[in-house]
């Protein structure tokens, strides 16, 4: 191993030869990446082993975070940073004439997630390790992560993502710890010692093989584990059609479902969910049994967290193992299970609520279905005892009803804690969406406002800003991000404002170069970089942003004297491949870009840029360069948002609705440092109840709205007048479900204020710095400490001596 620049160089050159079978001269950048990656993994391994031994010897309570998505992003740079060897490595490579950042670009971006939910899981792992908390991730090793997006003639085209094509230097395959998963077959009942026992027979068995990845804490010796399961056929399988068995088995972990906040309801997805859950629970029980024997005490030593309802079958699976395999009684097993499991809800959108048709569920997972039926019957009996005769309520709260298994109900009934992800979201859960459950189990409900890892989104993504903050307030904030508040004591220094302006400009320049290279568009560094990057969804209202740009275009065309602060509107978004509306919006953004950017006069003032294939690595270049952060969801619909926090931490000002964590950001920084607009969540919920919203009235009464909506279908954009008809229809014929037209005027007003505010340069940057100074509250370290104390009851484990 290496301990300084020189020993690193020596090690690197030797390893390059032995690994790649080539001399230094012939080696490619990828060879160098693989060599370096392997060296770093090896560097990690002693800490990794030590951490596991420490957890074992201290018999600490462990938490297992089950998630169908982990959106990790590239690991080399973050690992170097967390291990504190980035400088040695960077300087050593430089002396060999190699650029570290070029090597980093070689790493594929593991995109085992769609958006916020998956990225949250990745930030949580980072915080768990850094806080020395014994917490591990369990997920799926998808062969293909989220699709790569190509834009062809303004349309999104999806290509299979290939992150494993050149291998994964971070993973360690552990075939000895493989477990068997059973699908199909039937349940056989028999009597045993006077009681009934159940056996799942004639099942099709699939092997779950773990691949472990190290999760390196920042400047600590803790290295936790992310265990990703791969589906493989069993070697000695008595199947007649061996080929189709192999194909079906491997299909389980082939693809990540590309839907965000949408329930696919396909049998393959159900297979993935049970595969993840069964493999993980078996593995958790196996490691518990290495140290202890009394499973009645499981909840004292283990916490299992389910990230949304996708792993909700953890409840019946744990029951199955405790009863069928370990011989506990139902009541004993239920006590343990419901004390062990906790659940986070991430959305109130109805289309995201998972409900499985019994006719799909029962044949695939006969024993699990049986256990859910029993849980349901006992739960309904409890309800009956509390609300005798209230059939309506019981029907509404049942886990199984109308031919469907309701996964959220299963998760709530089987968990000790249910949390939302921002204050407003948790309140909506308690008072509306899950009101009846809150009334029945008030003690279970709580809030844990989301957070982000400042190590990735500030230290790694924005080294320039990191250096400035260190020079200004020292380094304590790096370990304790709440200390960023100290920046406030330096706001009066004009030098700080100037230096921050210089950092922002530098980062805008870097992004502008990328835009020039990828899009062939030259953007003005003095313009406001106004950014909306997130999944494409109607409720996130990229359309509102587009309509505002159309409005500006019209003003600029109609009135030569109309002047505004120049702006560059930047978008990045993937649409689910089957989400027709979302794909149309992507096309609309491109048509608008064409129109705006090609207009000789308008393009001097505004530009529109769509950045292809938005993903973690691209995001790391975007947040630091933003002046304005667009967080414009229909109030009540965005559970929290986390991009909002990443922008804030990098000194962008938010244009936002009073939704999700935007509200807590405003409470923290004050109304004067954020630009809010639009309906409140209460307004929206009232409209939804009383049905009094008529989008047509807004269309008729506001000429600006009429003009832009008409332009969707009058040939303004394209020869094909039908191209954007579905979007116009969503606004008028379908009465504008997300209140785009209702919020239009208010959005135009606030955007005008933004333009004016930007002209007072000092004041703008001061506001930006105030945002940064308060962003420590939105560190995932804070969030994870709250989960650890309130939900999981776990404590840090430190190296002795
Ligand atoms: C919520 F329900 C879901 C989902 O399926 N995928 C997803 O990314 C997001 N989310 C919410 O939409 C965000 O508001 C939230 O910040 C994020 O989860 C993390 O909690």
UniProtKB/TrEMBL annotation:
InterPro entries: Glycg_phsphrylas, Glyco_trans_35, Pyridoxal_P_attach_site. Keywords: Carbohydrate metabolism, Glycosyltransferase, Pyridoxal phosphate, Transferase. Gene3D superfamilies: Glycogen Phosphorylase B (3.40.50.2000). Its cofactor is pyridoxal 5'-phosphate. Pfam families: Phosphorylase. One of its GO terms (molecular function) is 1,4-alpha-oligoglucan phosphorylase activity. Coiled coil: none annotated. It catalyses: [(1->4)-alpha-D-glucosyl](n) + phosphate = [(1->4)-alpha-D-glucosyl](n-1) + alpha-D-glucose 1-phosphate. Phosphorylase is an important allosteric enzyme in carbohydrate metabolism. Enzymes from different sources differ in their regulatory mechanisms and in their natural substrates. However, all known phosphorylases share catalytic and structural properties. The keyword Transcription does not apply. Belongs to the glycogen phosphorylase family. Its EC number is 2.4.1.1. The lineage of its organism: Bacteria, Bacillati, Bacillota, Bacilli, Bacillales. It comes from the Bacteria. This is Alpha-1,4 glucan phosphorylase.
């Amino acid at each position: 191993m290496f301990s300084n620049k020189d020993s690193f160089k020596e090690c690197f050159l030797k390893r390059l030869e032995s690994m790649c079978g080539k001399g230094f001269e012939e080696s490619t950048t990828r060879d160098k990446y693989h060599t370096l990656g392997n060296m770093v993994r090896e560097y990690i391994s002693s800490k990794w082993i030590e951490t596991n031994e420490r957890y074992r010897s201290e018999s600490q309570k462990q938490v297992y975070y089950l998630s169908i998505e982990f959106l990790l992003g590239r690991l080399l740079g973050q690992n170097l940073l967390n291990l504190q060897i980035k400088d040695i490595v960077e300087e050593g490579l430089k002396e060999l004439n190699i650029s570290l950042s070029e090597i980093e670009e070689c790493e594929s971006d593991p995109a085992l997630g769609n958006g916020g939910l998956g990225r949250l899981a990745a930030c949580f792992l980072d915080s768990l390790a850094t806080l020395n908390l014994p917490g591990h991730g369990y997920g799926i090793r998808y062969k293909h992560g989220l699709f790569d997006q190509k834009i062809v003639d303004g349309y999104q085209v999806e290509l299979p993502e290939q992150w494993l094509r050149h291998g994964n230097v971070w993973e360690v395959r552990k075939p000895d710890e493989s477990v068997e998963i059973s699908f199909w077959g039937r349940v056989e009942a028999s009597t045993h010692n006077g009681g009934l026992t159940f056996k799942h027979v004639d099942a099709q068995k699939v092997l779950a093989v773990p691949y472990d990845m190290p999760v390196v804490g920042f400047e600590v010796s803790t290295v936790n584990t992310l265990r990703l399961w791969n589906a493989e056929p069993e070697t000695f399988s008595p199947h007649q059609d061996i080929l189709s068995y192999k194909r079906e088995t491997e299909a389980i972990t082939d693809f990540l479902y590309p839907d965000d906040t949408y329930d696919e309801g396909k049998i393959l997805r159900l297979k993935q969910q049970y595969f993840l859950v069964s493999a993980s629970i078996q593995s958790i029980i196996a490691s518990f049994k290495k140290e202890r024997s009394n499973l009645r005490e499981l909840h004292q030593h283990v916490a299992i967290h389910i990230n949304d309802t996708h792993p909700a079958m953890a409840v019946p699976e744990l029951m199955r193992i405790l009863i069928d395999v370990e011989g506990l009684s139902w009541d004993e097993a239920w006590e343990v299970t419901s004390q062990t499991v906790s659940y986070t809800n991430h959305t109130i959108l109805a289309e995201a609520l998972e409900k499985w048709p019994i006719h799909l569920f029962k044949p695939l997972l006969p024993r699990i279905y049986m256990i859910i039926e029993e849980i349901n019957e006992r739960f309904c009996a409890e309800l009956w005892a509390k609300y005798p005769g209230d059939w309506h309520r019981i029907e509404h709260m049942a886990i199984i009803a109308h031919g469907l298994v309701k996964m959220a109900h299963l998760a709530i009934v089987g968990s000790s804690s249910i949390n939302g992800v921002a204050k407003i979201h948790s309140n909506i859960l308690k008072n509306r969406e899950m009101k009846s459950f809150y009334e029945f189990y008030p003690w279970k409900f709580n809030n844990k406002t989301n957070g982000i890892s400042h190590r990735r989104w500030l230290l790694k993504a924005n080294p320039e800003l990191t250096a400035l903050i260190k020079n200004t307030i020292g380094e304590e904030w790096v370990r304790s991000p709440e200390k960023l508040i100290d920046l406030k004591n330096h706001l009066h220094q004009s030098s700080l404002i100037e230096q921050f302006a210089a950092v922002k400009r530098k980062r805008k320049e870097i992004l502008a170069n990328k835009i020039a290279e990828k899009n062939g568009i030259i953007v003005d560094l003095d313009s406001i970089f106004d950014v909306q990057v997130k999944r494409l969804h109607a409720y996130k209202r990229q359309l509102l942003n587009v309509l505002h740009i159309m409005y500006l275009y019209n003003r600029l065309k109609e009135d030569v004297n109309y002047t505004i602060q120049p702006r560059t509107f930047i978008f990045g978004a993937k649409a689910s491949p089957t989400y027709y509306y979302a794909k149309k919006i992507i096309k609309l953004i491109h048509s608008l870009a064409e129109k705006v950017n090609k207009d000789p006069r308008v393009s001097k003032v505004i530009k529109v840029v769509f950045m292809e294939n938005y993903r973690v690595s691209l995001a790391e270049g975007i947040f630091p360069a933003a002046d304005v952060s667009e967080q414009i969801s229909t109030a009540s619909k965005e559970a929290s948002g986390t991009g909002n926090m990443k922008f804030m931490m990098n000194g962008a000002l938010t244009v936002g609705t009073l939704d999700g964590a935007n509200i807590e950001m405003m409470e923290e920084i004050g109304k004067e440092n954020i630009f809010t607009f639009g309906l409140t969540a209460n307004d929206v919920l009232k409209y939804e109840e009383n049905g009094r919203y008529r989008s047509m009235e807004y269309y008729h009464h506001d000429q600006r709205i009429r003009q832009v909506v008409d332009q969707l279908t009058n040939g303004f954009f394209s020869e094909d007048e039908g191209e954007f008809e579905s979007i116009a229809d969503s606004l008028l014929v379908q009465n504008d479900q997300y209140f785009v037209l209702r919020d239009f005027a208010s959005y135009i007003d606030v955007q005008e204020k933004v333009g004016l505010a930007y002209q007072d340069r000092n004041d703008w940057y001061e506001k930006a710095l105030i945002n940064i100074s308060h962003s420590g509250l939105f560190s995932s370290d804070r969030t994870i400490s709250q989960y650890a104390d309130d939900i999981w009851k776990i404590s840090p484990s430190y190296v002795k001596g």
